[in-house]
Amino acid sequence: MITFRDVHKAFGEKKVLAGLNFSVHSEEIVFLLGTSGTGKSVTLKHIVGLLRPDSGNIQIDNEDITGYSEEDFALIRKKCGYVFQHPALFDSLSVFENVAFGLRAHGELQESQIQDKVTQSLELVGLRGINEKYPHELSYGEQKRVSIARTIAPGPSYLLFDEPTTGLDPITTNAVNTLIFKLSRKLGVTSIVVSHDMGCALKIADRIIVLEAGRLAVDGNVNEIWSCSQPLVKSFLEEVRLSGVDIKRFDEENPHS
Amino acid sequence: MILSLKKIFESFGSLTIFYGQLFKSFMKNGLPKGTLGQVGYLGWQSLGVTLYAGLFAGAILAIQFYVMLSDFGGEAMIGGLNTSANVRQVAPLLIAFLLSGKIGAFTSAELGTMKVTEQIDAIRCLGIDPIWHVVLPRFLGMVIASILLLTFGVVMSVLGGMIASSLVAGINPLQYIAFIPRVITSESLISGFFKSSVFGLIIGGVSCHQGISTTGGARGVGITVTRSAVTTMLLIVLADFLTSQIMQTALKLLDY
Predict the structure, then answer these.
(1) How many angstroms away from the CA of B202 is the closest CA of chain A?
(2) What tens digit of pLDDT does each residue of A134-187 get?
(3) Cys-Cys link to B176, which of B79, B231, B251, B253 (CB 3.0-4.6 A)?
(4) Is residue B78 within 8 Å of residue B169, measured between CB atoms?
């Protein structure tokens, strides 16, 4: 369980988080939605200690991580896998070496175990036969998948996705959303997805949290969001209706997944 | 003016803390994997230009000495004077400048790109210390490669001086070499090596620090590379002056 209590964060004069409160429960898929600059990615970065709050309190599994040092965060980061907005693959390493990087650096596994984990992770994201390729030889969608494989390889309990579908075409966007949904269900992990795509959220989220001006504006399940009268949510829903995208739930399409 | 001074002090403080982080990481975790690979890669990449610069630094200075000394019939001293000037001063300085623009700029651009494309954050998010895994191998690689290259460059400058003296002044290479031991002492060699080590630490430290502190996109990387090259050169000039003074004082105290 991840809990934010009255978290404040400012960059100079600009207040990004202004007393943010929310909780994410075990094995949920939670979407953090909001317009640009409302502090969605900043919130996610606080969970893994890439940013530290000015005040307030953050807990992971009832452990207060607010005052943790960089060294303390090493354990938290093993628990929380972070998928960046851009693939952030290591250019000089092959696909296999990218996915194996974290496993090798920790030195806890033998090479044969690392090979098995890398193969499993790549298969989970639907990639085969590209182990020896380098990032520049892959499409952007494939790079995204490799970055997800790299994140899930160490076996985190939480998956944090920072705008995973930004810059992708509709077909790849759908494929990545399917992947987030399936991975979360299959691996039994808790997923937090930062996005501004309400259509995606309505398809796969268990719960949707809408941020506005660094505060929680709305927190509810998909049915509650559909009936919400909050102006920002209404404009998001209007946008979805106008775009005409299919918003059938993934769990209805794949009841056994 | 006060703001600029404040910025300079802040940058100097930040660089000092960075050296402390590197030292702490090395003491805690030891020599990182990949250090030797970095020495080989960076050294091989710059060997050609270093030898070229060393050769011509020695040749140019030899011609200058010939012009000055020939008026007094002192051509026989060219070998000693030229070697002394190159070992102690000219070759290390010139080659250090060259390396700051070659391996220094390369590394700051590489680390800067890794920073702005979130590769450094990705490493942190895998629970791995980027200082030990990414920065320290490059820093140590640059320091060791710089010292080796500076040594090769200085040797080449002696050779360049000898060739130029022979071609321009008609000085027999044996005569050129014969005067070297009278001027070059162990003190000169220690001084040259000390300088090279300090220059290597500056090139490695500044370029890694600038790279890892990069913000913004492509423009940010451009700013980093420029700042890295300029800062390195300014610090090398300052260090050259200070190391010369320190070495002279130290050697006097040791009664060399």
Answers:
(1) 26
(2) 999 999 889 999 999 999 999 999 999 999 888 788 888 888 888 899 888 888
(3) B79
(4) yes
Chain B residues in contact with A74 by the CB 8 A cut-off are: 127-129
A249 in reach of chain B (CB within 8 A)? no
- ipTM of the prediction: 0.84
For residues B223 and A229, give the distance between their C-alpha atoms in angstroms, rounded to a whole number: 48
Own/partner pairs for A97-103, CB < 8 Å, 24+ apart? A98/A135, A98/A146, A98/A150, A99/A146, A99/A149, A99/A150, A99/A153, A100/A153, A101/A150, A101/B123, A101/B126, A101/B128, A102/A150, A102/A153, A102/A154, A102/B126, A102/B127, A102/B128, A103/A153, A103/A154
In chain B, what residues touch A106 (CB-CB under 8 Å)? 127-128
Please indicate if any CB of chain B lies within 8 Å of the CB of A78: yes
| Contact pairs from chain A to chain B, CB under 8 Å | 54
Environment class of A193 (CB within 10 Å of its CB; exposed 0-12, middle 13-18, buried 19+): buried
Residue B146 parent element (H or E): helix B136-164
The residue extents of the domains of chain B are 32-251
Domains and CATH numbers, chain A: 2-84+159-253 (3.40.50.300)
